[in-house]
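RECORD TYPE: inverse folding
INPUT: structure tokens
STRUCTURE:
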């Protein structure tokens, strides 16, 4: 019986507390060589795609730039276009916001990337509505939270119209020097968010449309992904949560008239390799305490409590004061929900498990993590995929740029031995890699 194929992608670590920038082995998150190394390592490991996140404003805490977080991110399209020239087969996927961009511009940029890369472009669609991010833009944070997916829906619709506006045989000469104007039609769209009349400036790339990824866990977000996405990026990491999410979004895709097998599910995951299980656990403990220092733990607690807590000991108990509702102490981060309810849950967990502030923050901010020997990690990844908890994983190494090297050298060969992972690229485009 053939095994369900495993798909893997590589996330370039960025603005988060996953990366250990204090480690002597850590490199720059801005130097092009860092991106090249991670992308080429993922390609050597036959990964489907390289994944680049994006932040449109530096995060702030207590009214200042949050210096305990990673800042700095080159322009997505410029970077991915440059990587297209130093890689051959791996997909190149970038996060582009539908709130603070325009469909014509994004459609042209992704078509350009798809041409330059030979059909390897992917778009991770994200929405935003916060005024803090919007302050970096002329029109500001005008968008109501309830409207973010309505705009995204129109955005993708208009982008697709631009990609579809050139007939496949519109280019008369192979070098693109001449076109048949009768085979290029105008794009016309009128909606609540866009009023567009115009022409695409180049034909769609080799894939027709770039591969579309989406991350959104609300009911509205899941429906949007089921309609439009080729792959979903999710934080549902545990086996049981993953299976529930997988079943739900595949069913939603089926109800949209799609083949659910064409919608791939990629949870984010980290990993720690050791020569033994005990060795790996010791490494994982050390890494998590590097990722969440005492100062970081207090700052992350302040984001929920909405008040300054610098007088509290990170190795002591949680505050006995209640959170401040509607606080703006931290800007640029996703809210945790109702702060009073979150604080109550955190207190209950800390009391039940005897956790200090730092230990609690480590526990509640940990994403799915594979810890163990190479054999154990290969077994676990295969188990998740075969159990329909996902189709693969987007791996987030804790070191840049060499954090993926050991995984590719030690785990990938074991996945191949199990007959669940490719031994060579068989497709050319990113869409073909996902379908493999």
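DESIGNED SEQUENCE:
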């Amino acid at each position: 019986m053939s095994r369900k194929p495993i798909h893997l992608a590589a996330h370039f670590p960025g603005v988060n507390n996953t990366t250990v920038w204090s480690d002597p082995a850590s490199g720059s998150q801005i130097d092009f060589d860092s991106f090249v190394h991670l992308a080429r390592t993922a390609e050597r490991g036959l990964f489907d795609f390289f994944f680049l996140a994006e932040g449109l404003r530096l995060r702030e805490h207590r009214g200042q730039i949050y210096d305990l977080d990673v800042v700095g991110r080159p322009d997505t399209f410029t970077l991915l276009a440059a990587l297209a020239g130093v890689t051959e087969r791996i997909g190149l996927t970038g996060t582009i916001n539908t709130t603070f961009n325009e469909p014509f511009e994004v459609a042209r940029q992704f078509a350009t990337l798809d041409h330059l890369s030979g059909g390897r472009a992917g778009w991770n669609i994200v929405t935003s509505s916060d005024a803090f991010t919007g302050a970096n833009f002329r029109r500001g944070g005008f968008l109501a939270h309830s409207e973010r997916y309505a705009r995204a829906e129109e955005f993708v619709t208009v982008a697709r119209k631009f990609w579809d506006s050139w007939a496949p045989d519109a280019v008369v000469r192979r070098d693109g020097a001449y076109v048949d104007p009768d085979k290029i039609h105008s794009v016309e769209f009128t909606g609540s968010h866009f009023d567009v009349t115009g022409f695409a400036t180049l034909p769609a790339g080799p894939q027709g449309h770039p591969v579309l990824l989406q991350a959104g866990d609300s009911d509205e977000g899941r429906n949007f992904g089921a309609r439009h996405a080729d792959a979903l990026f999710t934080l549902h990491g545990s086996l049981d949560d993953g299976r529930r999410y997988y079943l739900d979004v595949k069913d939603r895709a089926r109800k949209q008239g799609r083949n659910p097998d064409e919608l791939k599910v990629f949870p984010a995951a980290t990993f720690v390799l050791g020569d033994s299980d005990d060795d790996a656990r010791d490494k994982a403990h050390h890494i998590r305490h590097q990722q969440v220092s005492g100062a970081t733990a207090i700052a992350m607690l302040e984001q929920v409590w909405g008040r300054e807590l610098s007088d509290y000991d990170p190795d002591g108990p949680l505050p006995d004061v209640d959170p401040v509702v509607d606080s703006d102490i931290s800007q640029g981060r996703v809210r945790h929900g109702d702060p009073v309810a979150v604080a109550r849950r955190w207190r209950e967990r800390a009391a039940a498990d005897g956790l200090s502030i730092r230990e609690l923050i480590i526990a509640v901010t940990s994403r799915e993590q594979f810890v163990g020997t190479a054999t154990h990690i290969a077994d676990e990844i295969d188990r998740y995929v075969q159990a329909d908890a996902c189709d693969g994983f987007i791996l987030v190494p804790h070191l840049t740029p060499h954090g993926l090297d050991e995984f590719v050298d030690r785990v990938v060969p074991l996945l191949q031995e199990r007959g669940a992972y490719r031994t060579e690229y068989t497709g050319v485009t990113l869409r073909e890699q996902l379908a493999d």
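NOTES: The chain has a mean pLDDT of 91.
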